Amino acid sequence: MPTPILCLDDSLRQYVMAFAAVFTPAQTQHLVTVLLGLVLAPERRTLSGLRGRVAGAGSLSALSRFVSGAPWKAAALAEAWQARFRAQLAPRIQAEHARQRAERPRRRGRPAATRVTAFAIFDDSTIAKHRQGRTEARMEGVGRHYSTTAKGTVAGHSLFTGLLFVLGRRCPLPPRLYRQRAVAEAEGAPFRSKVDLAVEAVAALVPLPGADTHIPVDAWYTCRRLWRAATARGFAITGGLKANRWLRLPDPDAPGEHRRVRLSAYVAGLTPADFTAVEWRGKRVAAHLVRTFVYKLGACQVLVVKGSAEAPAHTARCWATSDLAADVATVAGYAATRWEVETYIEEGKELLGLDHYQLTRADSVERFWHLVACVYLHLDERRDTLRAAGAAGVTLGAAQRAEQAIHQQHLLEWLQAQFRQGASVDDIQHRLAA
């Protein structure tokens, strides 16, 4: 049953009003349709599916123009939601510094500095768009990309995106469409590699006041350009390492000299005694940390993680970090945090229909992704509210269900009020179908 816009919850209404500077009043009505439609999670999250969930949403063509061609800027929307997030986190960061100062032991000398880390995590994901219908055949930006879900190459879009993760809160960073070089040249668009997009995202990142910024990425993005872009801004960076990278290590046969060692060979030479048990995303794993020099990156600490100290060397995964002072447990935490962006992308697809669009223009696709990211931030705020009320283990799906329950209650109250005022079933049906 479609939900009338009149039943919009106050928290979502106030959230929409936070973007009044980005949208005109008429555009704001369409923003409400998209946000409310995505929150209510219809099976089909295309524009027609969203419109079908909201009574009084206007015509489908008007909603399509809002997403595709209305004069609002996706970049301005992203700046607005990030500014909102920074304003919300500022007092929490200061409170966390105060908590650390109050709990640190009293001893002689300069006290240890308090520290809050904000992780800006970047990754990409393939969104399959099979060329079966007329819409898919005309879609811009469609290329051949590897999909971990399909375990092979599929036709579709490649989404490059990021996530700010600090003190348990999550804020999406602006999503971008990655075009392969051949696709970009065929469409007359400028080519940007995935590393280009990551470097541009790091350059545009606005740090949270009072927090250290850390950039975790996977092995695809661990290269000299991104490493230097992050460290030049004073950010720390932790990136996955492929086994064919080269390390510079002390030469045991020539004191004071160094030798080049391939990472795979170094890992193969480690013994169980070289590993320490650390926490890794809720489980215990074996980890090894060494201070070294990684060619094309510079001075680093290299982390090696296996399921157990006795596990075969080929099962190990490796990372490099620019934080030269961190211990093995801390570096393992940096590497494990990268999975937050994987969860964000999965939640965007499963809960908010990040991949359900049927839009032909590349800029329209990016605008739709921005709208989904905007909804995600609202649900993260709802999740934070539930946690503050004492709920434990609240997922984004639970926050969405709580939001749905509120709107369902408003719908039932609206129906009750309409019937008390003498409306007939036919009248209600007509109003909901309008």
What is the gyration radius calculated from CA atoms?
25 Å
Order of helix and strand elements from N to C terminus: EHHHEHHEHEEEHHEHEEEHEEEEHHHHH
Low-confidence stretches: none
Range of helix content: 40-55%
What is the number of helices? 15
Largest sheet: 12 strands, mixed
On the 0 to 100 scale, the average pLDDT is 89
Shape: globular
Strand content: 15-25%
Could you tell me the number of beta strands?
A: 14
Structural class by sheet pairing and helices:
alpha+beta
Q: What distance separates the N and C termini?
A: 12 Å
Explain what this protein looks like in three dimensions.
With 434 residues, the chain is of the alpha+beta class. Among the domains are: 152 residues, no CATH class; 117 residues, no CATH class. The chain has 15 helices and 14 strands. The strands form two sheets. Strands 3, 4, 5, 6, 7, 8, 9, 10, 11, 12, 13 and 14 form a twelve-stranded mixed beta sheet that branches. α2 crosses α3 and α2 crosses α13. It is globular and about 95 Å long.
Short description:
This protein is of the alpha+beta class and 434 residues long.
Secondary structure layout:
Elements: E1 3-4, H1 10-17, H2 25-40, H3 47-53, E2 54-55, H4 60-68, H5 74-103, E3 117-128, H6 134-138, E4 143-147, E5 152-166, E6 169-178, H7 181-187, H8 194-204, E7 212-217, H9 224-232, E8 236-241, E9 246-250, E10 258-262, H10 263-268, E11 276-280, E12 283-294, E13 298-306, E14 317-321, H11 328-337, H12 339-352, H13 362-388, H14 396-420, H15 425-433
Helix pairs in contact: 1-2, 2-3, 2-13, 5-13, 8-9, 13-14
